[in-house]
Amino acid sequence: MDSRENQITSSQLMGFIVSIQVGAGALSLPANLARVCGHDGWISILLYGIMITAVISVIIGLMNRYNNKSIYEINKLLYGKYVGGLLNLLIVLYLWYSTCTILRGYINIIHVHLLRSTPSLVICIFTIIPTYYLAWYGIKYVARFSLAIYLSIGFCCLLFFLIFSDLRFNFLLPIGQSGIEGIKASFSPCIFAFLGYEVISVIYPEITNKKKAMKYAIGANLINTMFCILLLLVTTSFFGEEMLKKSIYPLFTLARAYRAPIIERMDILFIAIWLPVIAMSTRGYFCITYYSINKLLKLKKKGIYLLVFTSITILLSNIPESISQLTNYENIMMISGTLFSIFLVICYLFSFVRRKGVKPHV
Amino acid sequence: MYKRIKKIFPLLIVIPFILCGCWDEVLVEDTGFLTVVGIESAPQGNLKLTYALPVIDPDVTDARGEILDTESNLTRIARDNLNRRSGKDILAGKIQLVVYSKEFAIKGRISNTNSIFERDPSDAILAWVVIVDGSPRSLIHQAEDNLKDKPRPSTYLNDLLERAVSTANINETRIFNYDLISMAPGIDNTAPLIKISDKSIEVKGSALFSNKKMVGSINAQDGGLLTAMMKTLKNKKYTYNASIPFSTKETYSEKQSSAIQLRQNSKKINISIQNNKPVVDIYLDFSGYVDEYKWDNLNDEKEVKKLNDYVQEQIRQDCQKLIKYMQSIESDPIGIGDMVRAKHNSYFNKVDWHTAYKDATITAHVKFNVVEYGDIQ
Which residues of chain A have pLDDT under 50? Predict the structure, then answer.
């Protein structure tokens, strides 16, 4: 990848972040939240959404303190060559792990809903081909394609509108029943739904109009928060918390439950529209990981290394054998993502102590 | 930029429709699409299953449908058994009706049997949940063998049920909403209740449930009043069979009754807890369109007022009777418990709702006004 192939605008950054966030967590979010905080999931999302916005502000704040540097260069400035290098390795491993986990989740959905008898490995190879193709050309093209997320979100909102008359708003009452305990317990599913914002720290140097980066990054989080709140309000008032607790992908069940004229099975169309969304999430992490490896190891033979990277990713993504194992892997991803976010906040604070490389007058 | 977006968006809209075709090949001629499933109890806790599937084969001209009977412990295993007997590959994605026997519903076995439809995404969760007064197997066989002048059983039943929903005689109960209501606390299910006679199938009314078990039933006329209390009669064509004021000389039924189409203007339910008991007031406001009425002066305000008061009291009494019946069988399809849970949560958590519901004071307040009476006075 040459440097221009990775350059993106702030608005593309927004679409890129939204596509990673929505694709990864939205499908199972209502069910996961219902299990821990009943019908009050939307309150948790609102609170954690505000919290994540603050974290994004800190991340952009950290990036602004350094001149055109990503977290990899900042780490070396803050912690030295060896500790910084080790931290960079951990970040790349986290991103790679996230790629594999989300890819496995994506394959699982195709397996359950579409191609039951096709081996996971075969699905995996075929689903990663477009990602491989886009990654070859660079982040710019992935970010451009990720703008299609707005179309999928729009379609999803149309579905919400169509089933509006079947909603029972009593299912949302009494508000705040789960209390503080519920909000605390909803930490994992909420953070998992928001993961994706942390990639800003990696691709920040590639943003062309950095002055608008803060506005658009927060905008991305705002879109995701609003979409998740709407999703939770609709699914909870449609299914009720007891039924939600038993679901895995309530969004698909919602599409199955709508009787569409002529096409009848709305779920088939919905899956066809939603699959690119999940693919975008995988693609986002995939490209960022490959970009990071490329940047740290300064690879030159792009074709060979991308092929090797893709092959290892396919193999690793096939490690989880069942959906329950996948949940455990997702929990690890959530914990790692949270630690990464905390680490970025620490970096920001530490940059005031160790000012090496910090832009003057910042 | 705008022009590019204009070009790209139609493409993105078209793509999912094209991609929908990327699936395993399913040849209609080689597939047996299940449309009706009948489920009833068999000995040793097993299931007696009857499947109806239309014959889609140009070589077969003398049969409209094929019926397959089987007995198994699970519906999925039964389908596998059928696959070994049927000449075609059996698919369940087009099931339109799941017909349960009354005794099966009374045992509370529907909810668990439905799980396959929820679990397997290829199964339709939009199929009707129907209760038959009698045996589903006999209903499906009779419908196929005796009702030759009617459309295929699945189409015929489906049309009947949809018409009954449009006239508010029953509530629409599909697998997904049956399941979610059976899990929701403080609300009970209803399901269409049907019966077969020599010449036709009749939608008798609704089966009422309590704690996932069928506990009673109401007729189609009461079904409309229940719909008015549960949801609304807006956009429904519910005809109320009303008694009207008559003199002692008027002994024939056409002089004593009137068919009035009810339109619901509003519904309001007030709930309070008094002396540790729920006190519920249901306010219903109807407008009436008189479809059938004796030759009389309905343009006379006094006459109309008399009719309004008479019918209003009658609807109120019918609603009250219906509520009392539902309380006696501990069935709460209106969802009063759900409203209590939402507004008086601590009380709801403290009591066993079905017992508290039985003792609740529920009062119906009805307002009725004739607004139209057709082309004659």
Answer: 1
